[in-house]
Amino acid sequence: MAKGSERPKTFEEILDTPIEDFEKPKPLPEGQYLCKVVGREYSKSSQKGTDQIDFTLKPLDIGDDVDSRELKEQGGIGDRVLRYRFWPSDKAGYFIKEFFHHCGVKKMPLRQAVEEVLGKEVIAIVKHTPSKSGDMLYANVDSTLPVE
Question: Does the residue 12 lie in any domain?
């Protein structure tokens, strides 16, 4: 994996930026990213009120399949993060288990695994998904792989 990050702007630098200089954000290029699980949040979906768990993944490095030129033009990885969402249910249990196994977390109750996964590394496979309005692309975690 190749490095792909530069220093993000400070809050003060952002406040001093003319509003005309702000551009529509571009999603991280598709491909594989070495990530660290840096957060998790329990919440309910806004549409159906379904319980969900969001894991925050911080990209640390990029895979050979990531367009490094495009990423560099975007200013690198910077402070960007990815969200990996699960809706815990018997039907979705396999996908949650697969994510935990890829992070090296095995053989424990889900509640414990959610805490144990923090700080672990995993390969996130990023794909682009269009917004409902069709005017934006989002970089979403499609699946994961274990770090070899």
Answer: no
**CATH number (domain holding residue 100):** 2.40.50
Per-residue pLDDT of the chain (148 residues; tens, 9 = 90+): 444 445 667 899 999 999 998 888 889 999 999 999 999 999 998 888 889 999 999 999 999 999 999 999 998 998 899 999 998 888 888 899 999 999 999 999 999 999 999 999 999 999 999 988 988 999 999 999 999 8
Handedness of CA 28, 33, 39, 42 (dihedral sign): positive
> In terms of residue numbers, what domain contains 110?
27-145
Count of structural domains, the chain:
1
Residue 7 domain-assigned?
Answer: no
